[in-house]
Predict the structure.
Amino acid sequence: MVLKRFSFTPFQIGLHAFSLLPFSIFVFNFLTDAGFSGNIQRLEFRTGRLALIWLILSLFCSPVYWLTGYREAFKARKTLGRYAFFYAFLHGMVFLVLDYAFDIHLILITLGDTLYLLLGIIAFIILLLLAVTSNPQSQAILKKNWGRLHKLVYLAAILGVIHYFLIEKSDTRWPLTAAIILSGLLVVRFPAIHKRITLRKQANKVVIKTRSGKAS
Ligand code: HEM
C-alpha cells in the first residue's frame, strides 16, 4: 500500500525532475554563490517567472489530453500546479524575508501605493487555496464545489500576468507573450471550442478505425 503510494511512472519522474531543476540550480548557485552575490531582485524575478511559467504549463495539460488522449498529460496538471505554488511560495518568501526583512509596516505602505503587489498577493492566496485542497480528501468533502473552486486557477493566471505587465512597463515583450499564450489556453476552454476539438478527435479515430478495418 505504502509502496503503491510512492510508485511513479517514468513520465512522472521526468516531470518532477524537470520541475525541480530550476530549484536545484538556485540551491547550487546559493551554495557556490555563482552569479548570485546577494542579488535579491534577480532571485525575486526568477522565482516569479518560474511560478507563472509552471502555472501556464499546468493549463496546457487538458488541451494536450483532449488532442492526444494521453492520460499522463491530464494527470500532470496537478503536479505542475503544485510546483507553480512552490515557486510562488519561494517568490513570496524572497519578498517577505530578503527584500522587506519582515517589515510589515513598510509592506503595507508599499501595498497602498502599488497595484501590482496587491494582484500578486491575491494570485498567491488563490494558489495556496488550490494547493491545500488539491487532494482526494478535499475533493470528497467539497464534491461539485471542488471543480468550481479549482476554476480559480484561471483567475490566478490572469492576475499573475497583469502583475507581470505592471512590473515590466518599459519592455512588455515577455508579459505580452505570456498574455497571448494564456488567452489561447482560455479560449480553447470555451465549451463551443472544446466540443469542436473533442468531436474532431473522435471523427479522426473513426476514420483511422475504418481505414485499418479495410486494410485488414
Ligand atoms: C505573495 C505574493 C507576491 C508578491 C509579494 C510578489 C512580489 C513581487 C515583486 C516585489 C516583484 C519584483 C518587482 C520589482 O522589483 O520591480 C515581483 C515580480 C514578479 N512576480 Fe510577483 N509577487 C507575488 C506573487 C506572484 C505570483 C503568484 C506570480 C505568478 C503567478 C508572480 C509573478 C511575478 C513575475 C512574473 C514577476 C516579474 C519577473 C520579471 O520581471 O522577470 N508573482 N513580484
Residues 41, 44-45, 48-49, 51-52, 55, 88, 91-92, 95, 117, 120-121, 123-124, 127, 160, 163-164, 167-168 surround protoporphyrin IX containing FE (CB under 6 Å). The chain has a mean pLDDT of 91.
